[in-house]
């Protein structure tokens, strides 16, 4: 690459793959001396008008001097980037550092002129916006803080690129040219613009895969059977609405079709556009297929082949090469080692998967990394929709396999504004980018429920991503903070998803219980208590209850202002007056239809006929959609499959009843409106066990509470006594000593003090006499503490002596410590003034390389160390976050007057948490803070011990330009 002595080493870390506005991909990389021919070819394809806009004059061709100038960069004061597709330039951008006089300059000059040129065929795809993000990040890295651009007034597209970017800017007009100047420091608006563009681009890239106009299956066998032939049959049987093509290079030249589908020997032979290719050939033949598809303009690939990252180092390299190859052509990939994708929309009807039957249309989006789990989830939803538990359906299904390219984050971007998806269910083996996932999850959960079960997976196979160092329990807590409904098994995933898809969200935790079994009612009552709900006394209708009795009882419960949800329990009854299945179903149906919008669940035991009767309903899709479906099998009951059942898998008769219930109108986005409810109908889910029903209801209650809280997330308070600049100067001076260091006691006290966190002085006491002098200066009573690592904060081992009222007690305690534990040099004793009595707590903050800054809180000692009773929040923490953090631990009652004890000053504790959050948010160089113990008294808090670690902060990839994962 660059070899001249005045040039810096090629900056490979500037290379990036990006998703463009239309969902295609491009590669951005630095321009080098080897790109002369590519630059000339690119320029020849640019229109005269675009050339005029770039150079302000007719400029038909580049001179040799121009080519040299535009390909020779020092990567500091002169930088050029190119966007490429298929290895060829589609756009370029460059900056030149200038001084105050507008002439070429070097550092410390911090301004540069920037200019773009985009090939006409690629204008409107968001290429210039992506290049601006990347050249801006490069400029900031090289010490440039401001860009200037001169644009002709008629070049409105380029002016819009600059003005829409969200940077702080000013505009002037002189000599017929618009001059734009803008700061490169990210602003709240520029980040919002960037993330909105990211969402639109990534959603469209997934939409191109899930809603293709045409599909080719590559690797269709000539004989029946085989993966390719099976997928082709699944596509055909599902009624895919676009053209289908079968491809196999081994087809005879005279073979024109197979299974009624046009047959071709290669993708290039297809006389027409292909949007999606399903690749069902062995891994060693995939590169050839990728090249064919890229040359033919295919937009996306579903790669079913195995033999990639899951198979070891050689497979990982093969997977990386696959992704690089596909992205070079602007294609995205599902897989490899994928099960496939499904879209049940009547305008698409895509079953590009190994699932032999098309799922019923519905409102649930389903994502699974594991093909086996994807099969289980589809089977479970299919079975529960097949006449046993009512009809439920799927809008889209993605099984990503190794998720080498398209991941759960991409699918979340698609579901966020997909009008056909109202509830999202995800099985994740790992979260490759927790910071981005929590950001996307929070936004999605504010609009529609997101239910996640996470396996014990590791980092994505073949991904070059930073792994989180946070324990799984902490990650789970952070997901819940983001509104994710976190469940433990796929059974709970389906149970909770079905409830949220069919019923309104509850207004609170109060639960009415009614039914014809006293025992089942009590079981439900106990289950509610164990899940933190507030059940009302169960109402026993007795085993002689008629359908009218159920109807009346449910109607009264729904009308009762003291309940927020109703659980109906039902067992088989004997006698002439016992209601028939259809009769009971109709009774529940009509009662729910007439009552207020509250969630209703049914717990039923061995009433298969009732389940059949209650399931006589349309799908969860709107009726207009169902009417538009032309496939008569779309709503028929599938045959029962024989399955093996694991501990968390429901048996085939583990159902949910579905009753269509007209609903009262609700405002869009209302927390009490049903998630994904069809207009005019709700479906009542039912469960074979009280515990399963109540667990699902408990998750719905917590999610509804989060939705209400999310509407007012609180604010990050400003404190007048915070000295942010002084803290920054102190940190810079300390870091000048080395790359990372743990601060000493004085430095810790000074840094914390800049943020209003005052550490009680602890005076070193290497001798008993010095301990006595320190105590005299501090004032009795005092505490004597050993600060050796093995004794720190260990009052249980005798390393801390409290309430020493005079010098005699102090000297006796000092002698006992040194006699029991060793010399003063080993113990490192300190003397500290006694703090007011209260509850000992611990506050920690850490910057995780993947998840970001996390603030944690718990009680000091066994509660946090042995039981793991800690609560966590992402930084920055708002006032509402701090209040909930204090109340989230299981031992929180000790702070609020448990068993007659004095309540402590939780507002002061919350302020302390907010100040620590501000410290690590304002100064990412503060990579770890521990305050222990923090004694919270009835009035005020006392920080008795603290440690702070400084280091260069991890790179914030969420603040940089948009990029796809690196390989």
Walk me through what this model shows.
- This protein is of the alpha/beta class and 967 residues long.
- Helices cover 34% and strands 21% of the residues.
- It is built from 28 helices and 41 strands.
- The strands form seven sheets. It has an eight-stranded mixed β-sheet with strand order 1-2-3-4-5-6-8-7, with helices on both faces.
- Helix 11 runs parallel beside helix 12, helix 14 crosses helix 20 and helix 16 runs parallel beside helix 17.
- The chain is flat, with a radius of gyration of 33 Å.
- It starts with 15 loop residues before the first strand and ends in a 17-residue tail after the last strand.
Strand and helix layout:
Layout (H helix, E strand, L loop, with lengths): L15 E4 L5 E6 L5 H9 L3 H8 L8 H8 L6 E8 L2 E11 L12 E8 L8 H15 L4 E6 L4 H8 L5 E6 L2 E7 L4 H23 L4 E4 L8 H12 L5 E4 L9 E2 L2 E4 L11 E4 L6 H11 L3 E4 L9 H16 L3 E3 L5 E4 L6 E4 L7 E8 L2 H14 L9 E6 L8 H9 L6 E6 L5 H12 L4 E5 L17 H10 L3 E3 L2 H13 L7 E6 L2 H13 L3 E2 L3 E2 L6 H13 L5 E6 L10 H14 L5 E5 L3 H7 L8 H6 L31 E2 L20 E2 L2 E2 L2 H21 L13 H12 L5 E2 L2 H10 L7 E3 L3 H11 L3 E5 L13 E5 L2 H15 L2 H4 L1 E5 L5 E10 L3 E8 L2 H4 L4 E5 L4 H10 L17 H17 L3 E11 L4 E3 L2 E5 L17
Parallel strand pairs: 5-6, 9-10, 9-13, 10-12, 13-14, 14-15, 18-19, 18-20, 20-21, 21-22, 23-24, 23-25, 23-26, 26-27, 27-30
Antiparallel strand pairs: 1-2, 2-3, 3-4, 4-5, 6-8, 7-8, 11-12, 16-17, 16-19, 28-29, 31-41, 32-35, 33-34, 33-35, 36-37, 36-39, 37-38, 39-40, 39-41
Helix pairs in contact: 6-11, 8-9, 11-12, 12-13, 14-20, 15-20, 16-17, 17-18, 23-24, 27-28
């Amino acid at each position: 690459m660059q070899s001249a002595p005045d040039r810096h080493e090629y900056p490979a870390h500037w290379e990036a793959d990006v998703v463009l506005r239309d969902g295609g991909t491009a590669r951005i990389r630095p321009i080098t001396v080897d790109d002369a021919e590519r630059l000339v070819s690119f320029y020849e394809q640019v229109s005269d008008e675009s050339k005029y806009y770039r150079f302000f004059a007719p400029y038909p061709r580049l001179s040799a001097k121009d080519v040299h100038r535009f390909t020779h960069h020092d990567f500091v004061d002169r930088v050029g980037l190119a966007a490429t597709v298929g290895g060829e330039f589609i756009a370029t951008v460059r900056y030149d550092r200038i001084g105050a006089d507008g002439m070429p300059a070097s550092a410390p000059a911090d301004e540069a002129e920037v200019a773009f040129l985009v090939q006409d065929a690629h204008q409107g795809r968001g290429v210039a916006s992506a290049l601006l993000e990347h050249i801006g990040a490069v400029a900031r890295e090289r010490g440039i803080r401001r860009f200037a651009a001169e644009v002709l007034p008629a070049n409105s597209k380029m002016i819009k690129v600059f003005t829409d970017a969200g940077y702080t800017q000013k505009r002037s007009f002189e000599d017929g040219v618009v001059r734009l100047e803008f700061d490169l420091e990210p602003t709240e608006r520029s980040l919002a613009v960037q993330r909105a563009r990211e969402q639109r681009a990534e959603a469209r890239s997934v939409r191109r895969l899930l809603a293709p106009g045409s599909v080719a299956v590559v690797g269709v066998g000539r004989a029946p059977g085989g993966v390719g032939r099976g997928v082709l049959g699944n596509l055909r049987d599902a009624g895919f609405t676009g053209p289908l093509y079968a491809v196999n290079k081994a087809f005879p030249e005279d073979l024109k079709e197979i299974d009624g589908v046009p047959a071709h020997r290669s993708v290039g032979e297809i006389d027409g556009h292909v949007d999606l290719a399903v690749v069902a050939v062995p891994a060693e033949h995939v590169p050839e297929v990728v090249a064919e598809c890229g040359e033919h303009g295919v937009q996306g690939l579903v790669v079913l082949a195995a033999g990639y990252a899951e198979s070891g180092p050689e497979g990982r390299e093969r997977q990386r090469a696959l992704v690089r190859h596909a992205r070079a052509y602007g294609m995205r990939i599902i897989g490899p080692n994928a099960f496939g994708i499904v879209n049940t929309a009547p305008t698409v009807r895509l079953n590009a998967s190994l699932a032999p039957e098309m799922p019923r249309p519905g409102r649930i989006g389903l994502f699974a990394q594991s093909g086996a789990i994807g099969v289980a989830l589809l089977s479970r939803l299919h079975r529960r929709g097949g006449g046993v538990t009512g009809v439920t359906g799927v809008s889209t299904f993605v099984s990503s396999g190794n998720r080498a390219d398209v991941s759960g984050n991409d699918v979340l971007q698609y579901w966020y504004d997909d009008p056909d998806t109202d509830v999202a269910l995800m099985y994740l083996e790992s979260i490759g980018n927790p910071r981005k996932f929590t950001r996307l999850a929070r936004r999605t959960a504010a609009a529609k429920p997101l239910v996640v079960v996470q396996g014990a997976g590791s980092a994505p196979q073949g991904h070059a991503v930073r792994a989180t160092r946070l324990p799984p329990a902490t990650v789970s807590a952070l997901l819940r903070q983001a509104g994710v409904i976190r469940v433990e098994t796929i059974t709970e995933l389906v149970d909770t998803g079905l409830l949220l898809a069919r019923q309104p969200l509850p207004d609170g935790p109060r639960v009415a219980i009614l039914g014809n079994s006293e025992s089942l009612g009590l079981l439900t009552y106990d289950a509610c208590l164990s899940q933190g709900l507030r059940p009302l006394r169960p109402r026993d209708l007795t085993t002689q209850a008629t359908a009218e009795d159920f109807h009346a009882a449910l109607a009264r419960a729904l009308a009762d202002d003291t309940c927020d949800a109703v659980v109906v329990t039902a067992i088989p009854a004997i006698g002439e007056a016992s209601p028939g299945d259809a009769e009971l179903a109709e009774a529940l149906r009509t009662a729910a239809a007439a009552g207020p919008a509250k969630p209703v669940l049914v717990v039923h035991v061995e009433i298969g006929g009732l389940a059949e009767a209650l399931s006589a309903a349309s799908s969860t899709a709107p009726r207009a959609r169902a009417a538009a479906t032309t496939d008569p099998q779309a709503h028929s009951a599938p045959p029962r499959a024989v399955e093996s059942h694991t501990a968390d898998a429901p048996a085939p008769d583990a159902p949910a009843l579905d009753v269509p219930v007209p609903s009262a109108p609700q405002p869009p986005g209302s927390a009490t409106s049903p998630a994904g409810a069809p207009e005019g109908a709700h479906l009542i889910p039912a469960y074979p066990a009280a515990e399963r029903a109540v667990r699902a209801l408990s998750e719905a209650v917590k999610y509804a509470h989060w939705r209400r809280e999310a509407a007012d997330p609180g604010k990050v308070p400003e404190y007048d006594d915070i000295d942010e600049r002084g803290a920054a100067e102190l940190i810079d001076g300390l870091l000048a000593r080395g790359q990372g260091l743990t601060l000493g006691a004085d430095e810790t006290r000074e840094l914390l003090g800049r943020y209003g966190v005052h550490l009680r002085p602890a005076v070193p006491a290497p001798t008993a006499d010095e301990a006595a002098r320190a105590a005299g200066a501090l004032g009795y009573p005092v505490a004597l503490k050993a600060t050796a690592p093995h004794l720190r904060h260990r009052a249980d081992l005798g390393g801390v002596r409290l309430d020493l009222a005079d010098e005699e007690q102090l000297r006796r305690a000092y002698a006992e410590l040194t006699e029991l534990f060793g010399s003063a040099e080993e113990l490192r004793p300190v003397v500290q003034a006694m703090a007011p009595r209260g509850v000992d707590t611990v506050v920690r903050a850490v910057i995780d390389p993947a998840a970001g800054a996390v603030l944690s809180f718990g009680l000091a000692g066994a509660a946090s160390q042995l039981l793991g009773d800690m609560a966590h929040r992402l930084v920055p923490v708002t006032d509402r976050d701090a209040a909930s953090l204090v109340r989230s631990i299981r031992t929180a009652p000790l702070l609020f007057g448990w068993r007659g004890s004095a309540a402590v000053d939780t507002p002061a504790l919350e302020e302390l948490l907010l100040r620590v959050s501000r410290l690590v948010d304002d100064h990412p160089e503060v990579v770890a803070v521990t305050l222990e113990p923090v004694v919270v008294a009835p009035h005020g808090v006392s920080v008795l011990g603290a440690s702070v670690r400084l280091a260069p902060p991890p790179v914030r990839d969420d603040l940089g330009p948009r990029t796809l994962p690196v390989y």
